[in-house]
Every structure is written in structure tokens, then in C-alpha cells.
């Protein structure tokens, strides 16, 4: 499967317009944002776990990172509530589950292959800018934009912006809660936060290393 696999193009995927698709595991559904591959894939996905659902034990050869959007997501390393950001490095293994249900934004096979850093950070609602992870390969952060605030989106190494709450306008498009915007390497844009402001998860730099 190839979905939004041309990383030289801007992509906007709206949560409300993207259908839930079944996964191989009962009770686990997903909205695909980009993907190269089948069940083992370089992928960006919103995954919804019904209460009591689980995935079989598996190894992430290319690494996994996720942000818990709702509920509590669990594995052998702990229980991660809404607002938890987790990085499981390449070669890590776990058995995920959601006893009470959960929805996560998850990215697979997008790490520096040599990275071995395990990360768990809880989002702080009182910070206007919170760095979650940084290395020579990429930067991951959360930003709070005030109502009507204008923000320059410098995507020298590419950028992804995921709306946690609120919304903004960019290139004449309204981008709302749980929508996902990808800007190609070398692009530059301006976002204007809506009347409620916006809280956004941003990943940048990594698309300079994306497949061509």
C-alpha cells in the first residue's frame, strides 16, 4: 500500500473525512494518514482501541512513537493516559492494550536507525512550547498558539502538524481538532490560530530522511 507517499507534496487529512478501517486485531480500528507498506510499514496512523482490545506482542524494527489522544494506552512499560508521549526505539518489543479504550496518534519506521533512546513525557498544559524530543534527525514538540496568533511554519527539513485541540488556518484551509497537515522539505507557510487558539503536536526535520 502507498498512501500520501510523495513527500514532496503538501498533504492535509481531516479527521472527519477519513474513515475508520479495521486492523487485523478485533476491536482495533485505524485512520491512515500516510503509509508505505502493508502490515509492516512506514506509517502515520490514528488508532482506536475499543475497551478490552489488544494487539499481539510485536517488535518495532524501525521504532514507534505515539501520542495518547484519549483514554489510557497500556503495555509492559506502564499505563499511559491522555497526553502521554512515548518513543519506543528500533528493536523494542511490547504487547499493547487498552482495558478501558484509547485513541492514539502513532508513527512507525521513522526513527534514526541507530536511535536507542526510550522516551516518556507527559504534556504540560501550562507550557506554551514543550520540547518532547530532539536529536540530529528530528525535533518533536507541542505548542500552544493564542487566539488569532500567527505562526511561521519553517519546514526546512519537512514538518507535520497535528491538532490536539482548537484549530488554525493555513493556505486557505481550516485545520481542526485531530486533523493532520504535512509540509514538504524546504517549504514555508504561515498558520493563523482560530478563535479558541490551537494546541498542536509538531514533528520537524525528519522528512529530509524520508523515502524518495
From TrEMBL:
It comes from the Bacteria. It holds the Pfam family Cupin_7. Residues 9-111 form the ChrR-like cupin domain. This is Cupin domain-containing protein.
